[in-house]
Amino acid sequence: MSDFFKGLDKVRYEGPDSTNPLAFRHYDPDAIVLGKRMDDHLRFAVAYWHSFAWEGGDPFGGRTFERPWFDGGMDAARQKADAAFDLFTLLGVPYFCFHDADVRPEGESYAESTRRLGALADIFETKMAETGVKLLWGTANLFSNRRFMAGAATNPDPEIFAYAAATIKANMDVTHRLGGENYVLWGGREGYETLLNTNLGQEMDQMARMLAMVIDYKHKIGFKGTILVEPKPQEPTKHQYDYDVATVYGFLKKYGLEQEVKVNIEVGHAILAGHTFEHEVAMAAAHGILGSIDMNRNDMQSGWDTDQFPNNAPEVALAYYHILKAGGFTTGGTNFDAKLRRQSIDPEDLLHGHIGGMDICARGLKAAAAIIEDGTYERLLAERYAGWDGAEAQAMLRGERTLEEIAARVEREALDPQPRSGRQEYLENLINRFV
To answer: Per UniProt, where does Mg(2+) 1 bind (predicted)?
Structure first.
């Protein structure tokens, strides 16, 4: 145990009646939910960036956190890794996630940065073997450095496109080496501020070309994980090419990549796109591209992606309902892309944030399973669409009836259909029974 978490014990499940702030009340990794262990359903991961790289600043003030690894080179990065794996072990999470810039200091050249990433991968490899913690996914930070201010794959400068491609390759190599189960492409600046200086058709072609090269390289090196694109609306650029799940699917379909790529959906991004989280999950499931999720929440009084730990059990329950109905995670999982508030400066605050988030997810999972086991909700939903099971309705849906034929039948049979209640309030009350 490193000095940073000194004196703190491994977090245990103590049940709903526990008053211990450093214990789980709902997350019991060994509990069986729908015939499967809870930890196998949820597949929790800690985000390296918010937990260990974020300094607590905001647009009006700088660092509030004092971490011993913030100011330093490779020695500080090693110290950060020690603390990170201590947190993973204290929480008992099976996975973690990282960007390259989270784990190693930037070098003076691409080659030096890549060597430093490899050195940290050596450390990770040892610690993963010692602790049993695995890598859910890796990714490249292609948004913080000023060279990426006009995008990475979509940059008007082909040399920056090339630098981004090389950086992705280095991170895919490390992710593959560490047995990562996914590789994420997070297009933080893949968009534009104004069309006055933007050729959006050119930029989308560039973005598709980068993604196609990533897919080709995945197969070349034998990476068995899933390639994930993370939808990202509004921030930091005004218009994003990966705005939401539907936009990403349309992009993949346009370029013939929909069989090779899935999505990593974040709660905060869903809200910024004007959707609910369960909408984005259900949309991904409907298109067959549901991969993984980043669990957090936004402040409803703020227009920004505040990345707070989740605390809304009904919202989480509905998301896991759609995940369970889609068959659950395969290579994906529940990554906490969430950060402490800038006044939460103590090491144990990292535990409190993750404990609360893991308990909320466990509550949501159990509620979702109960909804499925009860069957009432699914029966009512099926009844609403039952008319489509009829022979004539199926013929219309299969394209066996023309517009003229349908119109003729409506006139011949003097159809006068009347609306039926959507029963939204009843359904909301029904769902709340399980939460």
So the answer is: 230, 266, 294, 337
For residues 256 and 305, membership in a common domain is answered with yes
Same domain, 340 and 390: no
pLDDT at 208 over 80: yes
Q: How many Å apart are CA 292 and CA 281, to the nearest integer? A: 9
Interatomic CA distance for residues 390 and 318, integer angstroms: 30
pLDDT at 405: 98
Q: Is 193 annotated for ligand binding?
A: no
Residue 80 reports pLDDT greater than 80? yes
Burial of 8 from C-beta contacts in 10 A (0-12 / 13-18 / 19+): middle
- For β-strands 191-192 and 239-240, DSSP reports them as antiparallel
Active site positions, annotated? 99, 102
Instruction: Give the range of the structural domain holding residue 308, as residue numbers without chain letter.
Output: 3-374
44 shares a domain with 16: yes
pTM: 0.97
The tens digit of pLDDT for each residue in 350-379 reads 999 999 999 999 999 999 999 999 999 999
d(CA 192, CA 189): 8
The sign of the CA dihedral 140, 146, 149, 152 is negative
Q: Is 85 helix (H, G, I), strand (E, B) or coil?
A: helix
Task: Choose the final residue of a domain: 374, 395, 412.
Answer: 374
Q: Do residue 92 and residue 59 come from a single domain?
A: yes
pLDDT for res 212:
98
**What distance, in Å, lies between the first and last C-alpha atoms of the chain?**
37
User: Using omega within 30 degrees of 0 as the cis cutoff, is the peptide bond preceding 68 cis?
Assistant: no
Strand 44-47 and strand 134-139: the pairing is unpaired
Is 176 annotated in some ligand binding site? no
> Are 314 and 408 found together in one domain?
no
Same domain? 324 vs 424: no
429, 391, 366: which is closest to 24 by C-alpha? 366
Percentage of the chain modeled with pLDDT above 70: 100
The answer to whether 205 is a known ligand-binding residue is no
Residue 285 has pLDDT above 90, yes or no: yes
The CATH number for 45's domain is: 3.20.20.150
* Domain match, 264 and 251 both: yes
Angle at CA of residue 224, ends 164 and 262, nearest 5°: 65
The annotation status of 106 as a binding-site residue, yes or no, is: no
Q: Which amino acid is at 214?
A: V
What's the mean per-residue pLDDT of the chain? Answer: 97
Asked if residue 125 belongs to a known ligand binding site, the reply is no
CA–CA gap between residue 354 and residue 402 (Å, rounded): 56
- Is residue 41 annotated as involved in ligand binding? no
In the listed set 333, 348, 374, which residue is the last one of a domain according to the structure?
374
